[in-house]
Specification:
The protein is an alpha/beta fold. Helix content is 38%, strand content 18%.
Length: 287
C-alpha cells in the first residue's frame, strides 16, 4: 500500500522529512501560499497544493498520514480553521498525525530542566497560542495525534553563519540564559521514527543534548569561519526588535530522553558544535 503524507504548511522541517520519505516511495502532498514555493516543492518531488484553492478532500481522503507545521495566530490554528471539518471527517482513517509545536509552551524555568511531563506555563503570547493550538488538535475525535515540541531549529540555510559573515551578528550577554537547539535533519529522523512506531497521544521534545548560551554558539560559528568573534553586548543595553527580545524572556534546558528511549533515536548532531561543523563542511564557505 502506498503511503501518502499530506503536509499542511510545508516548510523547512517538513521538507527535510519529505526528502527522507520520498526515498522510500512515499507520495507527499504539501500546502503553500506561494506559487514560487509551489514550483520549488514540485522540483523536490512533492505535489504542491496552493493553500485555500481547489478541493483538498480527495487528497485527504487517500492520505495515510498528515503533518501540521503551520503556526497559529490570534484566530487560532489556521489548518483547523480552514480544513477542520474535513479533518474531523477523515481523522479515524489516518495511521498517524503529527503536530509541530514548540518548547516555548513550557515557559521560563530560569535555566532549569523541563521534560514532556512539565506543566505548560508559556510566558509569551506565541507560547500561549501554541498551547491553545495543541489543545485544539487534541480535541479532534479519533485523530492519531503526536505532538512534537521543537527547540530552536538550525540547519542548511538557517543558522548563525550568514549573520557572522555579514558582520551583523552580536553576542547578546544575559547571565544564566540558555537555549536548546535541534538540527533539521534530526527533526526529520525523529518524525520518521515516530511514523514507524506510532503511539497516538504521545508528546516528544525535539532538542539536542547540549543546551547552551547563545553567545557561545555565535562565537563558535565565527571560529569555524575564521572570522573575528562578534562583539559582546549586554542584553539590557542591546537594541533589539520586540520579537528578538521576547526570545530572551525564557531560559530553560530541555530533556530529550523520550525520543531516545521510546523511538530509538540516536541524534546525528548531539550538540551545536557537531551541527555547525557539518554545516561548515557542507557549505564550504568562502571567507
Amino acid at each position: 500500500m502506498t503511503k501518502r503524507l499530506l503536509s499542511f504548511g510545508h516548510g523547512y522541517s517538513a521538507r527535510a522529512l519529505a526528502a527522507e520519505l520520498l526515498e522510500h516511495g512515499w507520495t507527499i502532498y504539501g500546502t503553500t501560499r506561494d506559487a514560487e514555493k509551489a514550483e520549488a516543492l514540485a522540483e523536490e518531488g512533492v505535489q504542491p497544493i496552493i493553500w485555500g484553492q481547489g478541493d483538498i478532500e480527495p487528497i485527504l481522503a487517500k492520505s495515510t498520514h498528515i503533518l501540521i507545521s503551520a503556526g497559529p495566530d490570534e484566530a487560532g490554528d489556521p489548518v483547523l480553521n480552514t480544513y477542520g471539518d474535513l479533518i474531523r471527517d477523515y481523522a479515524a482513517q489516518l495511521d498517524w498525525a503529527g503536530y509541530l509545536s514548540t518548547t516555548g509552551v513550557y515557559g521560563d524555568h530560569g535555566g532549569g530542566w523541563v521534560d514532556e511531563e512539565t506543566p505548560l506555563a508559556p510566558s509569551t503570547r506565541r507560547g500561549e497560542m501554541r498551547q491553545a493550538a495543541e489543545a485544539q488538535w487534541r480535541a479532534v475525535p479519533g485523530l492519531p495525534l503526536h505532538i512534537f515540541r521543537l527547540a530552536g531549529i538550525y540547519g542548511p540555510g538557517r543558522g548563525p553563519f550568514a549573520k557572522v559573515r555579514r558582520g551583523t551578528a552580536r553576542r547578546i550577554i544575559k547571565p544564566g540564559q540558555v537555549f536548546s537547539r535541534i538540527h533539521v535533519e534530526d527533526i526529520a529522523q525523529v518524525l520518521a521514527a515516530s511514523i514507524a512506531r506510532p503511539d497516538p497521544g504521545a508528546v516528544y521534545n525535539l532538542c539536542d543534548d547540549d543546551p547552551a548560551p547563545p553567545e557561545e554558539v555565535i562565537a563558535y560559528a565565527a571560529e569555524l569561519l575564521g572570522l573575528p568573534v562578534p562583539e559582546a553586548v549586554d542584553f539590557d543595553a542591546a537594541e533589539m526588535t520586540p520579537m528578538a527580545r521576547s526570545f530572551y524572556a525564557e531560559s530553560k534546558r530541555v530533556r530529550n530522553d523520550r525520543i531516545k528511549e521510546a523511538l530509538g533515536v540516536t541524534l546525528r548532531y548531539p550538540d551545536y558544535r557537531a551541527g555547525l561543523q557539518a554545516l561548515a563542511a557542507a557549505e564550504k564557505p568562502e571567507v
